[in-house]
């Protein structure tokens, strides 16, 4: 039995644009889907194609295909529960100075 069907997941493909910049001012990669798919908690986006190398000082815009996996009810609930625990890890960060006042 297919686990995707059992858990209510849906898979489909869509074209996408990938923008990569590797410069002094910025190091980023953005994926823009050419579909109206809603990417919410638990969703996965898998971009297909060969590995991309962006040398320093370059900005690339590429076209690829992406597989979008929409989560089922179980995945959405599990993601929301897990995110609560992961978010609380951020609360352990201290912004106070070690200097004596």
Automatic annotation (TrEMBL):
Source domain of life: Bacteria
Name used for this protein in its record: Uncharacterized protein
């Amino acid at each position: 039995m297919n686990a995707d069907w059992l858990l209510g997941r849906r898979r489909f493909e869509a074209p996408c644009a990938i923008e990569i910049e590797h410069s002094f001012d910025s190091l980023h990669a953005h994926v823009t889907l050419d579909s109206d798919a809603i990417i919410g908690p638990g969703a996965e986006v898998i971009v297909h194609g060969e590995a991309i190398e962006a040398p320093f000082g370059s900005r690339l815009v590429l076209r690829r295909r992406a597989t979008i996996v929409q989560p089922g009810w179980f995945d959405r609930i599990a993601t929301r529960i897990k995110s609560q625990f992961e978010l609380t890890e951020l609360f352990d960060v201290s912004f106070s100075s070690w200097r004596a006042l």
